[in-house]
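REQUEST ID: PR-0412
SUBMITTED BY: lab tech R.K.
PRIORITY: routine
TASK: structure prediction, single protein chain
INPUT:
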Amino acid sequence: MSMIDGKLRVLQMVDRHGSVTAAATAMKYTPSAVSYQLRQLAEQLGVKLVEPAGRGIKLTAAARTVLRHTAVMQAQWEQARSELAATSEESSGLFTLCGFSTAATHLLPLAAATLHDRHPRLRVRVVEAEPARCFELLEAEEADLALVMVTADSPSLSDGRFDQQSLLDDPLDLVVHAEHPLAARPTVTLADAAREPWIIGTPGGAYHQLTVTACVAAGFAPDIAHQADEWETGAALVAHRLGVMLIPRLGLINTEWPVTRIRLSGEPVPARRILATTRKGGAGHPLVAQTLDLIQVASSSLFSGGVPRGTPSARAE
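STATUS: complete
OUTPUT:
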């Protein structure tokens, strides 16, 4: 439930997406409906909110003022909801968790099941979504807590719309053929594989960005031989001696492939950072705190046994 006028939400989406058309697409409205709500809001406030800019529009200084105060009101409302929830004897209603593929596979189901057992009147829903979509779900109040990995497109930690806290670092492992010279080593540096052919994700995707960023930080640009957006596809290519790949510790692969996962050493150890994110003011909600405790336990269990041999996992996320 939101106490913020829906027209303010429309203004926020126009700001976020840069145009009426893009905002309409994101909200599943027609462009005319978005324009109408902007006009209504401008009339109610007695100010001009948008003005022409080339072939498009831009927000006015008045619109920026409205957005700044809207963010404050939203954060206060979320904080009020959290404080009210803390006074309730029994949690009820809908609580939605969202996260990228491996988080939705290995971290969220146990948390959702445990919350359901603890709070029989609570409906817990899990939504698998890319990080960018998770932020959209939070902003649209269609999710209450998101697990996201940091990418170049992630909102900054100072973004006033969200509370973001570091949850865990998911270390990267190098995957090589079982008979590769590096396979006998307990650990390797990423630079040890600098001259290898690499298997990475499709350009523009988080997995592609993750691999390239790690390699560049290690002092080389990867020789990209193949592209694969699923861990299993990449592992199959490695199994046929077609290259090497990186896989986060949470990403599991089939043990039947003749491949070896090796821990990476170095400072810092290449890893993807996973954040727990709520709307601004929502981090103090008791259900959020319980969920994060459960996720910490699940992640500790996954990481305590060293490099996993693994089972099939879905997409490379």
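NOTES: The longest strand covers residues 162-177.
REVIEWED BY: pending
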